[in-house]
Amino acid sequence: MARRYELSLPVVIRTVAEPETEPSSGRTRDISTRGVYFTVHRELAPGMELDFTLTLPAEITRGPEVYIRAHGRVVRVERRQNGEMPIGIAAVIEKYDIIRAEAGLA
Questions:
Q1: What letter would DSSP give residue 47?
Q2: Is 104 left (phi over 0), alpha (psi -120 to 50) or beta?
Q3: pLDDT for the residue 102
Q4: Which range of residues forms the domain containing residue 44?
Q5: Half-sphere exposure of 43 (CA within 13 A, CB side)
Q6: Which helix (H) or strand (E) holds 82?
Q7: Whole-Å CA distances, 2 to 27, 37, 69, 81
């Protein structure tokens, strides 16, 4: 079992099925090498494929910002009882790349 780290980081999410749709912004609640839990103001469904980018700030990296560009799949959706946003999303990480700020995001 992969260790989970409670981290509130900015995350940008794009669904693979709708690449032309504007990306959504959210915040992580926790992350591991195999999965991530985040909240977002967008309806997502279990099984949806996602591309997402997490930003590790300088305070964590002790240097320049680091971006984690990942591909995964939604495994669980937690809607609030009153139907308000944001909703919680648990996703499995299938692959990821680490990009240092100097290299930039292409």
A1: T
A2: left
A3: 65
A4: 5-103
A5: 2
A6: none
A7: 20, 14, 19, 30
Query: pTM of the prediction?
Result: 0.85
Q: What is 86-105 written as a DSSP string?
A: PEEEEEEEEEEEEEEGGG--
Place of tokens 């009882």: 81
Cis status of the peptide bond prior to 86, with omega within 30 of 0? yes
Radius of gyration of the chain (CA): 14
pLDDT digits (tens, 9 = 90+) for 28-67: 999 998 999 999 998 899 999 999 999 988 888 888 999 9
State the CATH number of the domain containing residue 9: 2.40.10.220
pLDDT of 97 reads 95
Cα 52 to the center of its chain, rounded Å:
5
pLDDT at position 103, please?
47
